[in-house]
Amino acid sequence: MKKKIVLFAFGLILAVILALGVSAEEADSSLSEITSVGFSDPAAVTDGNRVSCSDSVSDVTVTVTRPDNIASVYVVFDRVPEEWTIIPSGGDEGAVCGTNGFLHEFVDVPSLVGNTNSVILNFPAGTSVAEIYAFSEGDLPDFVQKWEKPLDRADLLLLSSHSDDEQLFFAGVLPLYAGERGLDVQVVYLVSHFNTHERPHEQLDGLWTVGVRNYPIISDFPDLYSESYDGAVEVFSQNGVEFEDFVGYITENIRRFKPLVVVSHDVNGEYGHGTHLICSAALSESLEAAKDSAKYPDSAQKYGVHTVEKAYYHLYPENMITLDLDTPLEHFGGKTAFEVTQDGFACHTSQHWTWFYEWIYGTPEAPITKATQIDRYSPCYYGLYYTTVGNDTVGGDFFENVKPYAEREAEAVQTEPVTEPSPVTEPISPETAETAPAAEEESGKKLDKTIIILLCVLAAVTLLAIFLAASAGSDKKRRKARRDSYRGYNGR
User: Fold this and answer.
1) Of the candidates 113, 121, 179, 146, which has an alpha carbon nearest to the alpha carbon of residue 27?
2) How far apart are CA 127 and CA 144, in angstroms?
3) Residue 2 is inside which H or E element, if any?
4) Residue 38: in which H helix or E strand, if any?
5) What is the mean pLDDT of the chain?
6) How many angstroms separate the CA atoms of 428 and 147, rounded?
7) Through-space distance between the first and last CA atoms of the chain, rounded to whole angstroms
8) Quick one: three-class SS letters along 319-360?
């Protein structure tokens, strides 16, 4: 009896799962066939190594096929691509990709070219590609990044000199504000690392790990080393970049993203790196220039002017606040902001030979597990350098006295006067009249399907209850008959 009940219950659960269409299938790329014409080293785009890449001196055609439909294509470029196209094999029309200049680009194939098991990717001459993947339907692997465009406006703008500074001297800021608090955070870098193959990928991997989803802004300024402000000015000048170029770049990004709060480097350059020094010095001038349409008029005409409400410098000694980076965060499953940033810096493997590694992780004998363990260049300390909303009195939060944009918009909606809807019925256009029945029919189909599923589940549960009740009654009769037979035997 118990076995029958268990089997019946299992069947019921299976039926419900099938009715609801629950699936735990994972996407894979193992069955993909990728062939190309025009790459210098076609094998490099499928070898699983992002450091090896294939360049093109002419237009490139890549054919991707799978035995099942292609749900998505993921292209890892070695250099920022120009626009490229994807078309279904045998088709004439496709879609343009690469419009956002993402180094790691995810393409939802059905939404662009429909369901197909074969597509053609057309890349222009000069394209450099590291890897190409094609996935089936299902949950994507963790390494796949689906970047969103840079923000239209930012609550917080983090101005970082280099790729990895955002995980070191600003440790915890991105997990706390972009991840846990869900604010609109835009990361802007002062220099680029396209003189290497590894660091641009590490840069994106690290940002993705700590919860950033809007693509960063990366300048064309080269990564040059110096140990003083004057040394940095000189070495950049020798490479065709003047201090005013940095001010103009930062001013443009302030005007473009209109941040409420800006966070950047120590005015002493943390350990004295010349680029860090230039970064904080240029930001100081940009905070004023961004408000003045007469300065850098091209970006003023393009984006308008903007006044930042607060600017914090790392380790700035005045109006100092202390960030709590060691409290577990719900968004990251109980990890602290500092622990998440440690995961972020783990992506920067090319920099693990430096003293930064021990600075953020400690040693096997004395591991660092909390931000408060770091004394030198502590990531917890910031000073309020600039404010239009008054000094902090509570401390511990960049957004004291500042309401994020979403909160401001919500309050604006609540305060808008409520108007009664007009009793006049708007005339229905012929197009609407034609499509309305179809839309209503489609809506009815969805409702009918939901009702059918619910009725099936209800019927199954009812049958189970009847089955259990009948089984219980049958057992009761058998037990009574057995007792009666015992009585008869004892009486003879």
Assistant:
1) 146
2) 21
3) helix 2-20
4) strand 33-39
5) 86
6) 40
7) 33
8) CEEECCCCCECHHHCCCEHHHHHHHHHHCCHHHCCCHHHHHH
